[in-house]
């Protein structure tokens, strides 16, 4: 024999599980706040011997070589090219198109009732 779950029963079960899981999380958080952790003493590091300072190395100064002065090169002047003028093209005059006039249509009048 098969047994069918009632949808309202499943909804009630889901709501109950949801509410209890939320309550458990809050309890665990409260326990974490109330736990007292003992303070441990900090270990002291052993004293290290001092390292003697090494003398600074001094490098001899090297004289800077003198560079010969080079003459500045002169730039060549390039002549500007002249563009020849193009002759102006004249378009022939076209006559403007005229719209033909249409006769105004006469609208018949609607007879009036006496």
List keywords for this structure.
single chain; 114 residues; mainly alpha; 1 helix
Write the layout of secondary structure elements.
Blueprint: H1 7-34
Compressed to H and E, one letter per element, the order equals H
Strand content: under 5%
Helix count from the secondary structure assignment:
1
The low-confidence parts are none
Biggest sheet descriptor: none
Proportion of residues in helical segments: 10-25%
Please explain how this structure is put together.
The longest helix is centred in the N-terminal third of the chain and has 28 residues, at 7-34. It is built from one helix and no strands. It has one helix at residues 7-34. The protein is 25% helix and 0% strand. By secondary structure, the protein is an all-alpha fold.
Brief summary:
The chain has one helix at 7-34.
């Amino acid at each position: 024999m098969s047994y069918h779950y009632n949808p309202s029963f499943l909804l009630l079960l889901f709501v109950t599980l949801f509410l209890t899981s939320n309550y458990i999380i809050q309890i665990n958080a409260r326990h974490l706040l109330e736990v007292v952790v003992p303070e441990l003493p900090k270990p002291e590091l052993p004293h290290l011997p001092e390292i003697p300072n090494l003398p600074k190395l001094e490098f001899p100064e090297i004289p800077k070589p003198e560079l010969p002065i080079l003459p500045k090169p002169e730039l060549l002047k390039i002549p500007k090219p002249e563009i020849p003028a193009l002759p102006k093209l004249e378009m022939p005059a076209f006559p403007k198109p005229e719209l033909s006039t249409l006769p105004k249509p006469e609208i018949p009048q609607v007879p009036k009732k006496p």
